[in-house]
Protein 1
Amino acid sequence: MDKRLLLQMTADIVASHASMNELSQVDLLGEISMVFKRLSDLAGGMEGEEIVIEAEATAAKSEPPKPAVPLEAAFGADKVFCMVCGQGMKTLKRHLSTAHAMKPGQYRKAFGIPAGTALVAKNYSEARKKMAADLHLADRLVKARAARGKKKK
């Protein structure tokens, strides 16, 4: 198969995926390399042909990440900003796992964030606490645990 066709197919596939998912530069480069390799393998291989992007992705992963947002500005009352990509949201945990394949501990370590710092916007956290108090969820939890304890005995 023609290398140009493989590159075009790779570009189309990765562009389609990137339009629906947020990818960091390293993730994007890695995906391009992976898709090209898979397509090449399916097409019978391109002996001697290697895509240079793989080496670039490896080099980029070894460098320590540079924060897109300063630590002081990352944790606001209404939004928490991702220090990897700069996107603002109410909570970071799901974004980190889906967009950057990071766990909260890895994220904190990479950017020097103290372990006690919540990865949630303060106003969002307060609203959730108020809602839980209004619904008496703590009381319900105590009752449910007590009932469950009685069933086990």
Note: Helices lie at 3-20, 25-42, 53-62, 71-74, 93-99, 104-111, 122-134, 137-152.
Protein 2
Amino acid sequence: MEPVTAQKRALGFLTRILDSGRIPNSLLFTGDPGLGKRRAAVAFAMAANCENPPAAVGEPLFGAHGPCESCPSCKKIRSASHPDVFVVERSGAFVRIGQVRALLDALGLARHSARTRVAIFPEAAALNREAANALLKAVEEPPENTLFILIAPEASGLLPTLVSRSQEIRFTPLPEGVIRRWIQEQMPGTSVQAAALAVLSRGSLERARELSEGQGLSRRDFLADALAALPQKGPSAALALAEILAADKAQAARDLEWILLWQRDLLMARAAPARLTNADRAGEILSLARSVSTDKLLADMAAVLSCERDLACYNVNPRMALESLFLQLAKMENG
């Protein structure tokens, strides 16, 4: 199953738009990266211009409205070669005024074959102020039968007046099962590891891709080995680990997410070992869990949560916050 099909609520909203026969001037797709927003935008452009009648369609994203994905129009849109469907990528750090002006010049010409021309901005938050203001004028007075689709993580990252002229559709994190199946398809033979990666992905296909193609499991294994050794190696190892993680605050935030999952697994091991996130390290987790009390595990989890909050919400020194955390995790049961 393609991950975007799991976006039932967003796809249902888009289907109702097609049902009504009244396509708005501007749609805003919001949500974290890797949730299927761009795929849905392209699919909606295909559905709005599909040449096949509903009866000829199998089980498309938008019910009887298609897209069929096999007619000439659908094929051209999918291959980014349709003359009436535009995708405006950013140039460097921004989407610039010149790109918007070029788009508006193209939209000022007669349509080639589409019923609805579509302009997709995959990174609308990258619109600089001049470009955003130029686009706003077009959204307020759009060319006939033209739809603008803006894609951004949050509406707050866009010009407020541009947001107010758009219908927002929120995309939500994908279910862990969808992410896990995608990882297994991309990396055959990794079913056990896929469960851990799916949890770490937090519902984002993009993050799942980064973890599965990058060093997601090796980073996890490094942290697992380091945490397991802390009680034996003591404060010096805790301070050294804090120094490593503090070098990259963004990575440290991701590491803390996994550390919390590791602590959860230790807590769950005795009661529900079949539900471990890091099931491929089940033997080690079960052994460690027998050597530490529930009170100690709960105190450790509270320390991780406190460190996460401090790094995310307060202007604290990352190294000092991490040192405090790992000194807590390194404490022996009687210490």
Note: The longest strand covers residues 146-152.
Protein 3
Amino acid sequence: MNNKKIYTDISEYFQIALGIFLASVGLKAFLLPNDFLDGGVTGTAILVNSQFESINISILLVVINIPFLILAYFTLSKRILIKSIFSILGLALVIHYVNFDVVTDDKLLISIFGGLFVGCGIGLTIKNGAVLDGSEILGVFLNDRFGISIGQIILYFNIILFSITAFILSVEIAMYSILTYIITAKVIDLLIEGFEDFIGVMIVSKHNIKIKSAIINELGAGLTVYKGEKGYGSSGELENFNIIHTVINRIDIRKMHRLINNVDPDAFYIEFDINHIKGGVLRRYLAKNKGKQLPKEILDYNKK
């Protein structure tokens, strides 16, 4: 068990180090030489450095993050705090001591690839239990105290930052910086949540046996059936009805619509986004040879 824990820690710190390197490439090879900003504390440090060039940006990254690390002490676990300190100090040191050649002076490419590298770096860091930017810690803290969405807090933080950028530097730089931030945020989401996008579907129908069979055999997706005791629908009061719950890849949602409408055009169904999945048959849809394990009522229906 201890060996496994040591291996996990080494793997996590290695990936955090890789994230620091990628973020540094995005900053020093793309954003910093052109005064482009990213969001959060990193963007704030770049903005301050553009006005006070005598202050080293590595020092600014550490100093501006200190209040957020203090918040992290009261908000996050000790393990995350230690990793976050390692990440922030590591980023500051790499930016200070390692030089990267400027790749391009095309503003659009700077925004796109700067955001891509920074997003990969932050995403890898977060995925391995650390924070590379203090604005995320602020989001967790305010969410814990006041129930405000973390995403909203970071969004408001960056709206203020980019508004100040437009006033101090230029509207053009602010606009390109917003593009960088959008790309960074999207890349972070992809790294954390993965490239597969799943959606949940809940179905209530009088023909639930046929719909169950179609979902399993035509989509190859697993499902769960809940027992409803009493409800009220278009046909009046219902008792002892079945509720089908399944999760499918978003690319199959049109096929799911056709499947339900073909069996029961009057079926009631709800779709909802899935943020995290683990286990089950979602990533390995049911193989045909598993049909032998299906309930007899579904097998009998398939023979019709």
Note: The first helix runs from residue 2 to 31.
Protein 4
Amino acid sequence: MNIAFFLIPKKDVAYLKVNSTMRQALERMEFHGYAAVPLIDSRGHYAGTLTEGDLLWKLKNTPDLTFNNTEKIHLHEIEQRTQNTPVSINALINDLISRAIHQNFVPVTDDQGIFIGIVRRREIIEYCAKLLNTSNQISSK
């Protein structure tokens, strides 16, 4: 199965550029209700995943940092504790499944490493459940 079938294109994904501010990240994550978002560099390459935990650790470890001055902190200054490894658009479904065990979403890149979207764990689980249901129906006949 081609993973493009599961792809949520970049235009429909809430992502951030690495030169965005911590405040922008907090506001975007709150608005969308996300616990993690992909980061994109100035050339459009996938640059990592920012999580709520990353933001909390930055807040904890930065004296005098308050919500009001989070606009002074750029995302490239925040350590990313989770490494969501991207897959190529040409990857196999097994590559998605193995990554989705540890990631809420799998970033997808084109042949030049440009971020083109994500595949959410939910779609992968739904696909696997459908396969299991089909297999069970065949077995019971």
Note: The helical segments are 22-32, 52-61, 93-100, 121-139.
